[in-house]
Give the backbone structure.
Amino acid sequence: MSKIHRFVTKDLTVRASAVDATDVVLEMQRLQHSYPLATAGVGKAMVGALLMASQLKDEQKVGLLFRGNGALKSIYAEADFEGHVRAFTPNPEYQPPSYEGGLSLADALGHGTLSVSRHQPFQKQPFHGMVELVTSEIGDDIAHYLHQSHQIRSVVALGIYLDQHGKVVKAGGVIVEVMPGVEDTIVDLLEKNAVEAKLNVSQILRDGGTPVDLVKTLLAGMEFYELEHTH
């Protein structure tokens, strides 16, 4: 279980969530014996699911299924409001021809779709939504889904840092969502902050930063406060 930090701007136009999910991603890697690229993909999906679930209500959960035509085939992650998360890929031992491109998932996952399901207690059938993958880099596709399905513009930054042996050192992420109908100036400021900061989630966490620091970077110039913890 991961502690998720939630924030909202003073004018209630922007909300944000951030998490250090190192422990749960490391545990996933240990259980699935996943290789570096699969670890990065499944880990980012776990973080993304946690961040999306943080905006739900008690006992609700969200499932993310990334399905592509690449060698990795698919990644599934499921998280609930309380911070529990699980995830897997059917090909955890996939190795790319080389790591010259780093831990990029674009080729490994390929072209395909992101399916999102939202489950509520006592609901027989969950809500389903689907969009095409735009980059296959997890965070971009989550932002695309939010925009297409819920008209929510967002910045989604996810990071996984592995050591030279491929073991998880840090994992976490931040999501900032702009409520529908908000002026473009707010969106422009968020995008400006993201570009200028060149936000590197795993680097910030590795250097001793916290989830709060991730949010401060993206909400620079805005008044905001932290809500009570979800757990």
Notes: The chain has a mean pLDDT of 91. The chain has one domain: 4-94+105-226. The chain has seven helices and ten strands. The CA atoms of residues 13 and 181 lie 9 Å apart.
